[in-house]
Amino acid sequence: MKALVKARPEEGLWMQNVPVPEPGPNDVLIKIKKTAICGTDVHIWKWDEFSAKTVPVPMVVGHEFVGEIVDMGAAARTYRIGQRVSGEGHIVCGTCRNCRAGRGHLCRNTKGVGVNRPGAFAEYLCIPESNVVPIPEDIPDEIAAIFDPLGNAVHTALSFDLVGEDVLVTGAGPIGIMGALVAQKVGARKVVITDINPYRLDLARRMGVQHVVDVGNETLRDVMDEIGMTEGFDVGLEMSGAAPAMQQMIARMNNGGKLALLGIAPTEFPVDWNTVIFKMLQIKGIYGREMYETWYKMIALVQSGLDVSGLITHRIHIDAFEQGFAAMISGNSGKVVMDWEG
Ligand code: NAD
Ligand code: ZN
């Protein structure tokens, strides 16, 4: 089968012919319809420090997907051939304390599809049946293909009660904008998103985020005054991984504020811990999606009108994958969806 492979420990990805994976007794084989490019795939493309340390070569990459079940192992009985599915890209051990307590997202032994084991940028993907998420008929393929990052946003945004709260989202990448839209949908009072990239700021405006702030050109404090925020933010969703954004968030929180951190910083950076202490802030780190509560909530949000389709800025055929990666690397894109059919 055709697959996008990290074939050599250097920049790039290569389309190669590799064997179709064989499902084990508890696995399903999925024929891929559409995939989307994640920031992680871009790191693997560039072969930065994180990738070189984490990804064994050769590796079929990719983990944002939708497809159709075409085969399954003898013990896999929950789904049927022909069913349209996406799936959780974190494969957990099932035997550690958190797994046995039903907290799979906190597994100590998580393996990433397309990172530690063969991924979804291929004609066929093999994953455990327990990782499969069936897609309701009213949800389009391209939306199901971006459920992984939407799940990151939903997990982060729903970490704290947002009803009537003032919410700051730092970073208007696809996940930040999704997080802001979720906050608005579930009843936040004011939602403010920040970025420094004009393309991303414009995308946030077009997607209908309430208040979009270019922190390269205006101060967050001034905007808070303009929109009638006399105190600070109640909830912060850190979606940039940028040190100045995190530092600004801590400075602009109200006492007792709650922070959910998703953005991954490239290097360590200083934090004003005394402000965290005197403001009595709560901080929660977020990795992936809750299994499988986030998936249920995300599907319900989409079915009740959460529309993230405008975040898909590039729709290409997989044969044009180099264009897709170039768009992601430029920063002038939302989600890039790659079609494996036709
Ligand atoms: P992205 O890189 O597309 O978006 C990040 C945005 O932050 C960019 O638009 C960038 O311009 C902006 N930014 C940079 N400096 C800023 C500043 N000072 N203030 C405000 N914004 C600033 O990333 P994404 O795909 O939307 O993902 C969001 C973050 O979440 C990334 O850091 C990514 O690595 C991370 N991530 C974490 C998980 C997890 O499980 N924890 C999963 C997926 C992604
Ligand atoms: Zn485990």
Automatic annotation (TrEMBL):
The record marks D148 as: Important for catalytic activity for the proton relay mechanism but does not participate directly in the coordination of zinc atom. InterPro entries: ADH-like_C, ADH-like_N, ADH_Zn_CS, GroES-like_sf, L-Threonine_3-DHase, NAD(P)-bd_dom_sf, Zn_alcohol_dh. Its main location: cytoplasm. Its cofactor is Zn(2+). It comes from the Bacteria. Belongs to the zinc-containing alcohol dehydrogenase family. This is L-threonine 3-dehydrogenase.
